[in-house]
Amino acid sequence: APVLAPNMSSCHLPLDFPTAEIPYDCCAPAAAYAPRLFRPNSSSTSSSSLRMRQPAHAADNNYAARLARAYMLMQALPPDDPRSFDQQANIHCAYCNTVYNQMFSSQVFQVHNSWLFFPFHRWYLYFHERILARLLGDDTFALPFWNYDHPDGASIPWLFSGSSAYAILSNALRDSSHEFPATVAIDFNVDTNLRPREDQVRENTNAMYRALIRDATTPESFFGWAYRHGDAPMPQGYGFGTVESQPHNSVHRWVGNRSAIGWKDMGSFYSAAHDPIFYAHHAQIDRLWELWKTMPGHKDIEDEDYKNAEFLFYNEEGELVRVKAGDASNATMLGYVYEEVEAPWMHAIP
Ligand code: C2O
Q1: List of residues 6+ apart from 31 with CB closer than 8 A
Q2: Distant-in-sequence, close-in-space partners of 274: CB < 8 Å, separation ≥ 6
Q3: Is the dihedral of CA 256, 146, 235, 128 positive or negative?
Q4: Active site includes 252?
Q5: Integer Cα distance of 21 and 95 in angstroms
Q6: Which GO terms describe its molecular function (predicted)?
Q7: At what angle are helices 277-293 and 117-136 packed, to 10 degrees?
Q8: DSSP annotation string for 112-177
Q9: Residue 45: how many CB atoms within 10 A of its CB?
């Protein structure tokens, strides 16, 4: 059976916190009603109204100012508004540091290290983006993606860096030696600061090739392990698909501050989404899902337990809704597309 929408009344303090960190409440505000099922609707998404997610490094000042303004407005919402920035960030703590139990089960709800990784984060970004758009009063607004698989995008994007004029998009809890223009290391697990940019970019291309082509020939290897009703979360190091491991986990750790507990913010589940770059990183991960599917023979998981798995999110109206993993399959139905840019790893022969 599928994992059903989490039981919100089961919410407890997060588990799996680093021992030195004091767990805090990251439960979403409870709703007094049963959330309706929200489904993407093909009639509302004509191709003329598709929102375009663009590479962050190529953003102009005008876009950066709009993004910064959207986050300012989000930060300014009352703290108990589920659309406020801290509440948005807490969504990640809730589903990743397992504050909820699965419905009709005493087992916790965990979206990582399993096939729920891609659809959960797609829905998460979808609502986050719709809330930002609503705050701006601009229905065409779309998140940027961090295009680190391209040599021109292989650093913290300028608008998110500490040296830009948009302080709200940067974050003190990062590795300062990895600030713009340091080269991101997708194969990061040791200190690679000393690699010349050209070498690191080549390693990145190889890592992308492994994650999306060489090692991801089946839906199971790309998406990660099955996760069904009553299943316990995977122990660390198991269950993830190729992309969830690299570049996803590696870029999280590369951005995070390695002298802080849990390499926060980006290095730990509970803190990661407090860094605005989180959403650009995940837009990129989401884009990689789209790119993987353009390759011959690649398709989404068709298991009913995957398609019917459920999550809960507050939408741009502040209404709690229920969504299904299988309904995330088609980004166009959700109203957005990615700008097409060259992906050098697609043709790499390492
Ligand atoms: Cu829910 Cu980037 O992890």
Answers
A1: 8, 320
A2: 86, 89, 171, 173, 265
A3: positive
A4: yes
A5: 18
A6: catechol oxidase activity; metal ion binding
A7: 130
A8: SSSTTHHHHHHHHHHHHHHHHHHHHT-TT----B--TTSGGG-SS-GGGSTTSS-GGG--SSS-GG
A9: 18
181 in a structural domain: yes
Instruction: Please indicate whether residue 92 is annotated as part of the active site.
Output: yes
State how far the Cα of 124 lies from the Cα of 30, in Å rounded to an integer.
17
Which letter does DSSP use for residue 38 in this model? P
The one catalytic residue in 57, 112, 150, 281 is 112
The pairing of beta strand 336-338 with beta strand 310-314: unpaired
Catalytic-residue membership of 12: no
- Pocket lining: 252 vs ligand 1, CB cutoff 6 Å: yes
- Alpha carbons within 13 angstroms on the beta-carbon side of residue 138 total 14
Contact at 8 Å (CB) between 14 and 98? yes
What ipTM was predicted for this assembly? 0.99
Query: Catalytic residue among 57, 178, 252, 274, which?
Result: 252
Query: Prior bond to 247 cis, omega within 30?
Result: yes
How many whole angstroms from 269 Cα to the centroid of ligand 1?
7
Q: In whole angstroms, how far apart are CA 247 and each of 32, 63, 311, 321?
A: 39, 26, 24, 30
pLDDT bucket at 190, cuts 50 / 70 / 90: low
| Whole-angstrom Cα Rg for the chain | 19
For the chain, how many structural domains are there in total? Answer: 1
Residue 134 domain boundaries: 8-343
Is 112 one of the catalytic residues? yes
Collapsed DSSP state (helix, strand, coil) of residue 22: coil
* Residue 166 maps to a domain: yes
Average pLDDT over residues 250-263: 93
Q: Please tell me which residue in 57, 178, 248, 281 is annotated as part of the active site.
A: 248
Gap between the Cα atoms of 122 and 127, Å rounded? 9
The CATH number of residue 160's host domain is 1.10.1280.10
Is residue 127 included in any domain, yes or no?
A: yes
Cα 136 off chain centre by = 22
**pTM of the complete model beyond 0.90:** yes
Q: Is the residue at 256 inside a domain? A: yes
Q: What would the two tokens of residue 90 be?
A: 């807490």
